[in-house]
Design goal:
By secondary structure, the chain is α/β, with parallel strands linked by helices. Helices cover 43% and strands 15% of the residues. The chain has a single domain, classed as Aldolase class I (TIM Barrel), CATH 3.20.20. The chain has an 8-stranded parallel β-barrel, surrounded by 6 helices. The two termini are 17 Å apart. The protein binds 1,3-dihydroxyacetonephosphate.
């Protein structure tokens, strides 16, 4: 049985005060029947960490540097995330890939570094509209997956969640149909099975991301291979995120 895992990616939103308020609201209103994580911006991690400490609300970061320390102006190290009791880090988000030019190779370096330091990883994959329309969605996702997970050990794969986020569905209000999403999720599970084996694949949590809302979460989560959601816009308010966190309450 895969326990549903709902994550909120706040992206570049919320001051420290707004972050603290939202984290408190989620703790007050949520049932935490499912696994739930929030990923505030870096500047809010320290204060939100204090609030979620000892609760069931997990703390995530949205990115991290590919090296541990040194002359990397503007970057945030895995050691700094560990210092704030961050549980997981989102890596390979499409905004990192497409706006900031992150390659599969750099993402793989980050994945291995995070795992080495005991952080869980949410590895994002997903095709653009152009790639989908030219029939290349699966090939693109496979390459992101295979190269993103290169040299990740069978022991570590249990600490990796894959988030399928079709780029054309992010922040656009367009959601992949539950059937289209399911097809890619099954494809991802089969690829992981080919690399790691049956057990690892059957235990892998695969989140869907891209315009997940209270109104579509139930049908998405009803799909066999959709085990969770990575939520952007709807994660910014308790009134929209709580119904998603508690979609099956
Ligand atoms: P939206 O839910 O705003 O489409 O964002 C999805 C996303 O990118 C989460 O990482």
């Amino acid at each position: 049985m895969r326990k549903p895992f709902i994550a909120g990616n706040w992206k570049m939103n919320n001051t420290v005060g707004e972050s603290v308020k939202l984290a408190r609201e989620l703790l007050d209103a949520g049932s935490f029947k499912n696994k739930v994580l929030i990923a505030p911006p870096f500047t809010s991690l320290s204060e939100v960490s204090k609030i979620v400490k000892g609760t069931e609300l997990l703390l995530g970061a949205q990115n991290m540097a590919s090296v541990e320390s040194g002359a990397h102006t503007g970057e945030i190290s895995v050691l700094m995330l560990k210092d704030l009791d961050v549980n997981a880090v989102i890596l390979g988000h499409s905004e990192r890939r497409h706006i900031y030019g992150e390659s599969n190779e750099i993402i793989n370096t980050k994945v291995k570094l995070a795992l080495h330091h005991g952080l869980d990883v949410i590895l994002c994959v997903g095709e653009t509209l152009e790639e989908r329309e030219s029939g290349n969605a699966e090939a693109v996702v496979k390459k992101q997956l295979v190269e993103g997970l290169k040299d990740v050990s069978p022991a570590d794969i249990a600490k990796v969640v894959v988030a399928y986020e079709p780029v054309w569905a992010i922040g656009t209000g367009k959601t992949a149909s539950p059937e289209d999403a399911q097809a890619i999720h099954l494809f991802i599970r089969n690829e992981v099975k080919a690399i790691y084996g049956e057990k690892e694949a059957s235990e892998l949590i695969i989140q869907y991301g891209g315009s997940v809302k209270p109104g579509n979460v139930v049908t998405l989560m009803a799909q066999e291979d959709i085990d969770g959601a990575l939520v952007g816009g709807a994660a910014l308010k308790a009134e929209t995120f709580v119904p998603i966190m508690d979609f099956n309450k």
